[in-house]
Amino acid sequence: MRQSVSCPVPANEPQRIASLYAYDILDSLPEMDFDTLASVAANALKMPAAVIGLMDSERLWFKSQIGLGVTHLDRSIAFCAHAIMRPDEVLVSEDLTKDARFVHNPLVTNAPNLRFYAGAPLINQQGYALGTIAVADTQPRTLSDAEKQLLKDFAKLVILAIESRKTATLLQKLAMTDQLTGLPNRVHFERVLNAEISHAKRSKIPFKLYLMDLDNFKWINDTFGHPAGDEVLQEVSQRMLNEIRAEDLLARLGGDEFGLIVRGDCSQFKDTITSRMAYAVSAPLTLSNGSEVSVGMSIGSVAFSESVDSIGELLGVADELLYQQKRK
């Protein structure tokens, strides 16, 4: 079914899309904050349908929807595509069958046979229209100035929820990340290890735990200072990352200690993973002061066994094997 007018695109579209993607919200799971806002908007304006939609390059994706029954719409038929063209206004179409922009829209000519639409753009702090909060009805309607302002107020609440979600996600990431190396930290590692133990017990799919400690690192710290030690940790972390698979987890546990979880059948990695990582780590590296240094690596590893009852037991075995090697 054709549209009478092609889908408009804002002049700042590349920047708008980049701003939207920075929130990492598209295709996320439903969340109560957004569902509540959509529901309250529908009730406050006495509408059977309400949506919170975010417009990417090809579709309008619904973070929340009440009464529409779909998760997204093609951008070419989304009323929101027109609403975001005027960020300071509420787009109101009192009778969609009499609106040249929408009269041939499949949402009007076919189910759900919409007749009324009103959408307030979601304007973020940078001034970009990310999408809309919108209400709709299957009967022609009008919207008073007070109701338009109410819809604008709901849009501000949606943006606050989006910004708060971004902040919470960032804080959670920071809490799980080692700030020096960018690797997951001990908290994250132990959380994943706990989950891996539970999964292995249920699925019978094995995994292997490695604990690694750098040799000669204390001498570098004592000789060249902690900034030099930080350089070594950053470089060594990257070297180890280059030797593992994407599905495995490498973390800095503290100081010069690292942990690695290798998922699946580990027999093929029995010798190669330790030798590859040790070889990569031991290659000389040049500090920013021009000094050339090198470190070694001691490794303790243990394969998951169903007799293991706790994360502490597994870490304890690997730790003992690590220090047995370190004492050699």
Tell me what you see in this structure:
The chain has 328 residues and is of the alpha+beta class. The chain folds into 2 domains: 13-174, GAF domain (Beta-Lactamase, 2-Layer Sandwich); 186-327, Reverse transcriptase/Diguanylate cyclase domain (Alpha-Beta Plaits), CATH 3.30.70. The chain contains 10 helices and 12 strands. The chain has helices spanning 13-21, 32-44, 80-83, 106-109, 145-175, 186-203, 217-224, 226-241, 272-282, 311-327, and strands at residues 49-55, 59-66, 72-74, 91-93, 116-123, 129-137, 207-215, 249-254, 257-263, 285-286, 292-293, 296-303. It has a 6-stranded antiparallel beta sheet with strand order 3-2-1-6-5-4. Helix 2 (32-44) runs antiparallel to helix 5 (145-175) and helix 7 runs antiparallel to helix 8. The chain starts with 12 loop residues before the first helix and ends with a helix. The model is unreliable at 1-5 (pLDDT under 50).
